[in-house]
Amino acid sequence: MNKEEARSIFICAGFEVKKMWELVNQYWPPAYLKERAESPWWLVRTEIGLIVIGWRKRVISIDWSNTEVRAIVTEDDVTKDETSVHAWATPKAVRYLNALREANEEKSCST
Prior knowledge:
Blueprint: H1 3-12, E1 19-23, H2 33-38, E2 41-46, E3 49-55, E4 60-67, E5 80-81, E6 84-87, H3 90-110
Antiparallel strand pairs: 1-2, 2-3, 3-4, 4-6, 5-6
């Protein structure tokens, strides 16, 4: 996933992308130099905080543990918890991030 692909996922989900940093792929071990170089991960600053996104082998990992939002963003049968989810395709990543943004809005309205 290149920078523009990562940015577009967030924009399509309704987020404002304030800043982005490239990270070393957090899935592939150091010996997999080619895979790590071809598939960086991204740290994205949004209005709700920092979110990490990047491809694992077959899924997009999305981690929002550096935000205050705690929410299960899908009922899909995927790896998920209150601070992360695995998306099997880009449209699913957009859908899950949109659900995360909405969960944050609901949290803000209830406080």
